[in-house]
């Protein structure tokens, strides 16, 4: 008798209660501030394990059997979701390596039109927190982008000796257009770090694509000019006999030849240069890219120092998104600092992207002349990018 009552109570009272949806757990999702249920956390753990067990170019199940072995894994630490488009290239590979090492990154998506399975498999063996997933070809672009907080774009062809960055426009403009259309569709709120050259034109192209899609937020689109700052800090430190890590050179304008304008009068710590030093430094900073292109003698342009610079800038964006204060870097952004619609200058990065764009500050005569030259070339490059989409 009692046994029948016990079975009845178990079947109709205890069991249904046990299978009710779990209560929200106070642990946070990767998207900061978003709560996850226990069930979501369990699935998340499984998908983290799956990411390491499955061939990287295959779509992963979000739940279910782990396949080969019974792994136990801790849940992911909170962090940001980052996609690299052009991840198998000369910049893309070391950039992927360095982003996998960044503790602010919880999910790293590697997208390219070639070779992502190998790069993803390789990078995914690194024992750092970020889960790595690979995406190959345009059919997988949407999946690569969904839910991303930050998208870094080094996709496109590099220069060979004798070429200008503008010579890359023909091929890279179309690549950037396609990728930005994907961003507008799949992660319209992501921060975009655009590396592909010519940056002075590709950023206006991206802005026009986003405007067309109704998703343009000028605070979230950045042309990456960090390599100019990295070079300027290095070359100035060499001249002064100081540690480059202690030097801060603002570099404004754009990212090509005379549009790269180092403000040597505003170097920190304050210092002075001879006229000869100013000529040498300005020329070397403006032509740093060409120096590398010529040294590589046809096999490409800067990749390793660029990956370093890209990660330095991406990390600043992520720290801004996290809410850290006082994050200031130079970047090529939609701007009212000059009469041009885009201009590189110091930007304060925060939760919403570029929260403040600083004016240029006092310039000396040498820099004022340089600024006029820079603006003339920049105006033409910006117009070229805009009319590529509006035509
Ligand atoms: N902003 C800067 O300071 C800076 C510095 C260095 C290089 N760059 C530029 O970065 C770009 C890449 O340079 P790199 O040396 O890595 O070149 P790379 O040729 O080594 O790599 C480019 C990668 O982009 C991929 N790609 C091509 N079309 C694509 C598409 N439609 N979608 C996704 N991926 C695509 C290629 O398959 C390749 O893996 C060049 O345009 C270069 O001029 C900019
Ligand atoms: O110079 C190039 O073509 C690549 C890049 O823009 C650089 O500055 O190194």
TrEMBL record:
UniProt entry keywords in alphabetical sequence: Glyoxylate bypass, NAD, Oxidoreductase, Peroxisome, Tricarboxylic acid cycle
GO annotation (BP), single: tricarboxylic acid cycle
Chief location of this protein within or outside the cell: other
Catalytic residues identified in the record: 255 (proton acceptor)
Principal EC category: oxidoreductase
Pfam families documented for this protein: Ldh_1_C, Ldh_1_N
GO annotation, cellular component aspect: chloroplast; peroxisome
Binding residues annotated for NAD(+), in chain numbering: 86-92, 112, 172, 195-197, 306
PROSITE patterns for this protein: MDH
Residue ranges occupied by any Lactate/malate dehydrogenase N-terminal domain in the UniProt entry: 81-223
Gene Ontology terms, MF aspect: L-malate dehydrogenase (NAD+) activity
Catalytic activity: (S)-malate + NAD(+) = oxaloacetate + NADH + H(+)
Record: residues binding substrate: 159, 165, 197, 231
Domain (Lactate/malate dehydrogenase C-terminal): residue spans on this chain: 225-388
EC id: 1.1.1.37
Family that this chain belongs to: Belongs to the LDH/MDH superfamily. MDH type 1 family.
PANTHER family (alphabetical): MALATE AND LACTATE DEHYDROGENASE, MALATE DEHYDROGENASE 1, PEROXISOMAL
Subunit and interaction comment: Homodimer.
Entries under NCBIfam families matching the protein: MDH_euk_gproteo
Protein name (record): Malate dehydrogenase
Species of origin: Ziziphus jujuba (Chinese jujube)
Name of the coding gene: LOC107424991
